[in-house]
Amino acid sequence: MREYLMPILVVASLVLAGCNKAKSPEDVSKDVAQAEQKANNEVTKSEERAQSALDKSYDKVNDQEIQFNNDAAHQTYKVAIAKADGNRKVALATCESQSGSAQKACKDQAEADFKTSRADARASAEAAVQQK
Q1: In whole angstroms, how far apart are CA 60 and each of 46, 128, 131?
Q2: pTM: predicted TM-score of the whole model, two decimal places
Q3: Would the CA dihedral through 87, 92, 96, 98 be positive or negative?
Q4: Which of 38, 47, 126, 132 has its CA at 20 to 30 Å from residue 87's CA atom?
Q5: Measured in whole angstroms, how far is the alpha carbon of residue 84 from the centre of its chain?
Q6: What gap in Å lies between CA 105 and CA 127, rounded to an integer?
């Protein structure tokens, strides 16, 4: 056992002595340049991946914003139609107090006002709708 211990110690001391040996300035400069290049490449790749992820997120957010605005335009249209219909019903009920041609003219005016309000609501909704 003792005869194996001495060669192992000699080999270990040679290995340890070789690990701490200084490299030449050219080798160090070359290693530093390679490490800097590798670090720059990693940073560039990381920036590209980050930009790609941000672009995808932006596209999703932009699509959701468009969908939200289109939904808001549709709901605004529905409210405008409900208001126009309510105004028409009130006007038609008011027309009941009249008779003959005055009542007919009143109802015709109520229907014309409703159609105008409906057309205005449609035009506003179509103007507000965004395309992807």
Answers
A1: 21, 20, 15
A2: 0.58
A3: positive
A4: 126
A5: 36
A6: 33
pLDDT tens profile 4-61: 666 676 666 655 555 556 778 888 888 888 989 999 999 999 999 999 998 888 888 8
CA dist 119 and 125 (Å) reads: 10
Report phi then psi at 27, rounded to 5. -65, -40
**77 Cβ neighbours under 8 A, 6+ residues apart:** 121, 122, 124, 125
Q: What's the farthest any 2 CA atoms get from each other in the chain?
A: 132
Long-range pairs for 10-19 at CB < 8 Å and ≥24 separation? Answer: none
Q: Evaluate whether 132 touches 68 at the Cβ level (below 8 Å).
A: no
Q: Number of C-alpha atoms within 13 angstroms, CB side, residue 101? A: 0
Q: What's the gap between Cα 29 and its chain centre?
A: 46
